[in-house]
Amino acid sequence: MFHPLSLFVGLRYVRSRSHRFFVSFITWVSVLGVAIGVAALIVILSVMNGLGGELRARLLSLAAQVRVNPAPEAAAPADWNAVADRLRAVPGVTGASVYAEIQVLAVHQTEMLPLMLRGIGADVAVLDPVLVDGDTASLATDPGAIVVGQVIAMQLGLVVGDTVEILVPVVGSDGVPGASLREFRVAGVFEAGLPDHDANLAFASLATLDALGAARSGTAGVRLTTADPLQIPRLRPAIEAAAGPGLAVRDWTQDHATYFRAVRIEKTMMAVILLLIVAVAAFNLVAMLVMVVNDKRTDVAILRTLGARPGEVARAFLTQGLVIGWAGVVAGVVGGVAIALHVGELAPMLERLMGVRIMDADVYYISAIPSVLEWSDVAVIAVVALVLTALATVYPARRAASIPPAEALRYE
Predict the structure, then answer these.
(1) What share of the chain is helix, strand, coil (3-state, %, to 5)?
(2) What are phi and psi of 359, to 5 degrees?
(3) What global pTM score does this model have?
(4) What DSSP designation does 230 have?
(5) Lowest-confidence range among 11-15, 172-176, 320-324, 355-359?
(6) How many CA atoms within 13 Å lie on the side-chain side of 33?
(7) How distant, in Å, are the alpha carbons of 9, 75, 84, 221 from that of 72?
(8) What is the Cα 360 distance to its own chain's centre?
(9) Where exactly are the structural domains of the chain?
(10) pLDDT tens-digit profile of 207-222?
(11) pLDDT tens per residue, range 365-374
(12) Among 136, 183, 133, residue whose Cα is nearest residue 163
């Protein structure tokens, strides 16, 4: 069967067992190093994707995916429910509900704490995924019920069933500022795992905030939910058109841009750091091939005297290096994908083996290691690793091609 000379010789060198022990050891170290580096990259980036998704889910469990509020210097609509009906008809929008917010002061015994009181109507269920204790359903039926963040409860010494006084700033008809005091019952305590929510946010019914004067001294608007929060930038033109003039549209990608920019930067830096493992393995591949070239000087000289061109010799060692390096890449991709898809099952086994909790619930808000495998990340990692290992074969191949046949055979 016909084979190109360079491919035949390169594959023959890969299968050869006549290498010295140290050369063979370096070969296996190179393959293992590439495989470990690629697998670590895939697993870590998958975990970072999972953490980013968990952060996004927690943010969106309390924050609006899209908010529609009066534009600066514009008057608020007379009927927010009509605005919500128009927005609910936009393709891709799955829900629209009126909300209100007002800055208040919470007082319990001798402790006082400023917080944002948010009135919610039909979307009371958004609190359920992050509820630690209590019953959010009472918000819809009890005008005196309130749900507070866990940090607020700790700072004020509140538990479910306690009462808390809410001091609301108001402006009288004569323009004189004042305050009204109202007593609420703590119906629940939520924990989103985000300081901006747990330490600053409380929920009451929308009717309660209307009675407190939120329409005059606070913020009112419409909160939207969509089928896919990641597609909201594409839906913005339709939402803005449905909202009409005088209303401003703002989505979660703008409200929480800092969080996700930090996650992206951390993910990028982690990828660069772990990519150094593959780079070190590529250097090992260079060292291994250089030693193989020195070991095969006589073979190279014989090939040259039989008519092999320098390019064919170079391609033979390129073939050997690529097969070894790419074998490590394939092994790393297979191992990394397998681990990333089963992190949830492997983490408890590792915890039992080591006798430690990786994500201790007393320390972290997330007690399980999330993992989301994105095939685009796998493809990028594999391509970069393949390129690095390919570049590692260039110098040894050129060195093999430059061996003078007469010099190599002089003392043989």
Answers:
(1) 55, 20, 25
(2) -120, 85
(3) 0.69
(4) G
(5) 11-15
(6) 23
(7) 74, 8, 20, 13
(8) 20
(9) 5-57+260-409, 64-253
(10) 887 777 665 556 788 8
(11) 566 778 888 8
(12) 183
